[in-house]
Automatic annotation (TrEMBL):
<protein>
    <submittedName>
        <fullName>D-lactate dehydrogenase (Cytochrome)</fullName>
        <ecNumber>1.1.2.4</ecNumber>
    </submittedName>
</protein>
<dbReference type="Pfam" id="PF01565">
    <property type="entry name" value="FAD_binding_4"/>
</dbReference>
<dbReference type="InterPro" id="IPR051914">
    <property type="entry name" value="FAD-linked_OxidoTrans_Type4"/>
</dbReference>
<keyword id="KW-0285">Flavoprotein</keyword>
<dbReference type="InterPro" id="IPR016171">
    <property type="entry name" value="Vanillyl_alc_oxidase_C-sub2"/>
</dbReference>
<dbReference type="InterPro" id="IPR016164">
    <property type="entry name" value="FAD-linked_Oxase-like_C"/>
</dbReference>
<keyword id="KW-0560">Oxidoreductase</keyword>
<dbReference type="InterPro" id="IPR016169">
    <property type="entry name" value="FAD-bd_PCMH_sub2"/>
</dbReference>
<dbReference type="GO" id="GO:0004458">
    <property type="term" value="F:D-lactate dehydrogenase (cytochrome) activity"/>
</dbReference>
<dbReference type="InterPro" id="IPR006094">
    <property type="entry name" value="Oxid_FAD_bind_N"/>
</dbReference>
<keyword id="KW-0274">FAD</keyword>
<dbReference type="InterPro" id="IPR036318">
    <property type="entry name" value="FAD-bd_PCMH-like_sf"/>
</dbReference>
<dbReference type="GO" id="GO:0071949">
    <property type="term" value="F:FAD binding"/>
</dbReference>
<dbReference type="InterPro" id="IPR004113">
    <property type="entry name" value="FAD-bd_oxidored_4_C"/>
</dbReference>
<dbReference type="Pfam" id="PF02913">
    <property type="entry name" value="FAD-oxidase_C"/>
</dbReference>
<dbReference type="InterPro" id="IPR016166">
    <property type="entry name" value="FAD-bd_PCMH"/>
</dbReference>
<feature type="domain" description="FAD-binding PCMH-type">
    <location>
        <begin position="51"/>
        <end position="229"/>
    </location>
</feature>
């Protein structure tokens, strides 16, 4: 694994492998424990295929009671556990550990309750994101957060990463659409947080769980809110002579008080790659393309389409096309949704980055990324959740050329540091995982990190759940109480210590 330092596997756990597998088989009988190399191979990586690691064993429980027993066993025996949904994480969140149990939640694939009156669905964590919408579509409802991976990724993984999608500008990320969870702690205790109501008493622990990347517990049930499908949705395609002009249009639309259902930007390289892949009629003679979707009552949508067109024309828009049918609207989105596989056709490998910037910083960030592209000698295309300021630069490289992966990783790290420098953050929706773990120090100082780590320790004092992810190495519960003494001098000697 290029440049990636993971916690050293514990020799005593590796030596006990046969006994551990036998004990786990007693908890999850039948085909629930996988231990052969061939059968474990599909679990060796997630969406970040550059990093691979065979786990100690794979366990596939199908009941909450089994999850509870597996975690209690891991806790009693000091064995790390990595939860996994569909394994589509783009930050290495589900990367296994050599001495750890990979806990696959794929068998938790049932919808438990649909309540149209309360507008909620209770789903097991292995249900796919799209599966929730499919289950309620017959009554005109849907689940709003729509990651491009929605056909495959699970609601449990969405909770882990606080995932987003093109419609999150108006309808919020996972955290704004999850109402409650059932979760198993590392001790095996089963807890419930939130429920089928809008708010719950006490501390906002739900906000803490969503986005916790499998570090605090294993989610075994998720309650989400569902929405009635808008009466109408129409999309506008607008081509601009520069990314700056397209960025100015995004800012002007928001400043006009319009919140589109989705607002995405693609640069020249991505427009060409996507068009060659799906042939939806994207303009090829522009530098930047905006897709703006308006949804709501028909009269309002038609009015807003006109307003957005006026704003675009006022800012030098070169081409403008509004969808006139549902098929055309879907076609407009097809290119954007296929952007990642489209890059797979023009480059043997690519790294998909995920950082967030204040919208006004877009022109500066794009031009500095171009300079970086020249410096590293690697192509970089951009798709962008423009309304949210969430960038997805796609860095093209060839893993077969020695040193190119390392170059691509360094390029990616520079982009994320730039996001922080201009007032943004390291991630928008893909999580920190292992990919951004070592950059956390660029955004948080030691005090911030120590406070975050204390929360982790309150749930999992022995760091058994997904260790090596999110926190830079050397941040372990046991080290929080330590003091670094330099040159024999105790820092802040007058402060009392207990
Ligand atoms: C082609 C492609 C497009 C993508 N597009 C988007 C996008 O538009 N927006 C977006 O946000 N993401 C996107 N992603 C990233 C990814 O799909 C999301 O992060 C998704 O939420 C991961 O879900 P998963 O089921 O695959 O989870 P996994 O990858 O298996 O796990 C993700 C994290 O959640 C934890 N986890 C999983 N299940 C549980 C559980 N039951 N309890 C506790 N922790 C758990 C894991 O430990 C890990 O840290 C994309 C990925 C790909 C490959």
């Amino acid at each position: 694994m290029a440049g990636l330092v993971m916690p050293e596997p514990k020799a005593d756990i590796l030596a006990r492998r046969a006994q551990i597998i036998a004990d786990l088989r007693a908890i999850v009988p039948g085909e629930g424990v996988i231990d052969t190399e061939t059968e474990m191979r599909p679990f060796e990586s997630d969406g970040v295929t550059a990093y691979r690691q065979m786990p100690l064993t794979v366990v596939l429980p199908s009941t909450t009671e089994q999850v509870s027993q597996v975690l209690a066993y891991a806790h009693a025996n000091g064995i790390p556990v990595v939860p996994r949904g569909a394994g589509t994480s783009l930050s290495g969140g589900a990367l296994p550990l050599a001495d750890g149990i990979l806990l696959g939640m794929g068998k938790f694939n049932r919808i438990l309750d649909i309540d149209f009156a309360n507008r909620t669905v209770v789903a097991q964590p292995g249900v796919t994101n799209l599966g929730i919408t499919t289950a309620v579509a017959h009554e005109g409802f849907y689940y709003a957060p729509d990651p491009s991976s929605q056909i495959a990724c699970t609601i449990g993984g969405n909770v882990g990463e606080n995932s987003g999608g093109v419609h999150c500008l108006k309808y919020g990320l996972t955290t704004n659409n999850v109402l409650g969870v059932e979760m198993v702690l590392i001790t095996g205790e089963i807890i419930r947080i939130g429920g089928q109501h809008l708010d719950s008493g006490g501390l906002d622990l739900l906000g803490l769980i969503v986005g916790s990347e499998g570090l605090l517990g294993v989610v075994t049930e998720v309650t989400v809110r569902i929405l009635k499908k808008p009466e109408t949705a129409r999309a506008v395609l607008m081509g601009f002579p520069s990314s700056e002009a397209a960025g100015a249009c995004v800012a002007a639309i928001i400043a006009a008080g319009i919140i589109p259902g989705g607002m995405e930007m693609m640069d020249r390289m991505m427009i060409h790659a996507s068009e060659a892949f799906v042939n939806v009629g994207y303009p090829l003679d522009v530098e930047a393309l905006l897709i703006v979707e308006l949804d709501g009552p028909e009269a309002e949508v038609n009015h807003l389409i006109e307003r957005v067109g006026e704003i675009g024309n006022g800012l030098g828009c070169l081409t403008l096309r509004a969808s006139t049918s549902e098929e055309e609207r879907i076609a407009f989105w097809a290119g954007r949704k296929a952007a990642f596989p489209a890059v797979g056709r023009i480059s043997p490998d690519y790294l998909c980055m995920d950082g967030t910037i204040p919208r006004k910083a877009l022109p500066e960030v794009l031009s500095r990324m171009e300079q970086m592209s020249e410096k590293y000698g690697l192509r970089c295309g951009n798709v962008f959740h423009a309304g949210d300021g969430n960038l997805h630069p796609l860095i093209c490289y060839d893993a077969n050329k020695p040193g190119e992966l390392e170059k691509a990783e360094a390029f990616g790290a520079d982009i994320l540091l730039l996001c922080v420098e201009v007032g943004g953050v390291l991630t928008g929706e893909h999580g920190v995982g292992v990919e951004k773990r070592d950059l956390m120090g660029s955004m948080f100082d030691e005090t911030d990190l120590a406070h975050q780590q204390r929360l982790k320790c309150a749930f999992d004092p022995n760091s058994l759940l997904n260790p090596g992810k999110v926190f830079p190495q050397l941040h372990r519960c046991a080290e929080l109480g330590r003091m670094h003494v330099s040159g024999g001098k105790l820092p802040f000697p007058d402060i009392p210590r207990f």
